[in-house]
Amino acid sequence: MKTRRVPIRTCVVCRQTSEKKALLRVVRAPEKDGGGVAVDPTGRANGRGAYVCASAECIDKAVKQKRFERSLSVGPVPPALAEALKSLAEKVAEKTGVAAQPTGAPEMI
Ligand SMILES: [Zn+2]
User: Fold this and answer.
1) Cα(32) to centroid of ligand 1, in Å?
2) Within its chain, how far is the Cα of 59 from the centroid?
3) Which of 20, 73, 85, 97 sits 20 to 30 Å CA-CA off 13?
4) How many C-beta atoms surround the C-beta of residue 20 within 10 A?
5) From the CA of 8, how far away is ligand 1's center (Å)?
């Protein structure tokens, strides 16, 4: 069996490298698609990507310190981006077992 090479990416905030699947991807859509910035849960969307740890700390810093704007050379990202990233972070944490927290009451959506 061949060992699969695990893709490694760098968090735009803390500069820590992690497996791609443990990081959250934010993608800048190509100009023809409007050039907007969005969370990319698949990690495969077209466009330029920036990565951030699946932690509330890094997400908050990324937004406050305008890391995505700088990394992707875009204007201000939508405020909802942080929320979208955080909810995705919870899913990633479940999948990877990172930062697993005891689950309390079922989440109201
Ligand atoms: Zn980080």
Assistant:
1) 30
2) 8
3) 97
4) 14
5) 13
CA of 64 from ligand 1 middle (Å) equals: 13
How close is the Cα of 38 to the center of ligand 1, in Å?
18
If you classify domain 8-96 with CATH, what class do you get?
Answer: alpha beta
Q: Where are the domains of the chain?
A: 8-96
What phi and psi values does residue 41 have, to the nearest 5 degrees?
A: -65, -25
Taking 90 as the threshold, does the pLDDT of residue 108 lie above it? no
pLDDT digits (tens, 9 = 90+) for 36-63: 899 999 999 999 999 999 999 999 999 9
d(CA 83, CA 85): 5
Q: How far apart are alpha carbons 8 and 108 in whole angstroms?
A: 34
pTM of the full predicted structure? 0.81
pLDDT band (50, 70, 90) for residue 78: confident
Compute, in angstroms, the gap from residue 53 CA to the centroid of ligand 1. Answer: 4
